Each structure stands twice: as structure tokens, then as C-alpha cells.
Amino acid sequence: MEQVMKDLKSQASKSTTPGKGGLTPEIQSRIGHQLRAMYDDVVRQGVPDRFAELIKKLDAPGATPHVENEGGSNDNNNGRD
């Protein structure tokens, strides 16, 4: 992905009109294709097992959410009692 971004930056600097700024339609299209490919890859990965298990637990009748407090107080009162 890093190489793709370098290529796009290089091509953008060569093909944009000096003084106008922005990206050419060709560059915008290539960026769009890359973003779609990345999104499709993420969608294909699906939901991680740990998230699926958590959702099942939360959907269970009588389930009460329990958040573990690691590393100190997080009661959102900013030290005020």
C-alpha cells in the first residue's frame, strides 16, 4: 500500500496542472479503486470470533454488560464526588 501511495504522489506531481493544485481525474480514479479494494478486503475478513462471542453474550436473555476496569478508576467524575 505504501508503494501505491508513493506512485500516486509521483504521478500526481507529474500530471497536475501547475498552479491549479488538486488531483487529475485519473489519479482520483486510481485512489478510488485502491480504496474499494481495501474496503472489499476488510469486508471479506468478516467479524472476528471474539466480537461474535461478545455479541452473543450481550444478546442473551438477562445479560448485563460488564466492563472490566483495568489500570485505575474510570468513573467519569473527574475527581469530583
Task: Offer a few descriptive terms.
single chain; 81 residues; mainly alpha; 3 helices; Anti-sigma factor NepR domain-containing protein; NepR
Q: What radius of gyration results from the CA coordinates?
A: 23 Å
Structural classification? mainly alpha
Largest sheet: none
The helix-strand sequence is HHH
Helical residue percent band: 55-70%
Mean pLDDT: 76
Shape designation: elongated
Approximate strand percentage: under 5%
Structure, explained:
This is Anti-sigma factor NepR domain-containing protein. It is built from three helices and no strands. It has helices spanning 2-15, 25-45, 49-59.
Tell me briefly what this model is:
By secondary structure, the chain is mainly α. It is 57% helix and 0% strand.
Sequence-ordered SSE layout with sheet pairings:
Elements lengths: L1 H14 L9 H21 L3 H11 L22
Helix pairs in contact: 1-2
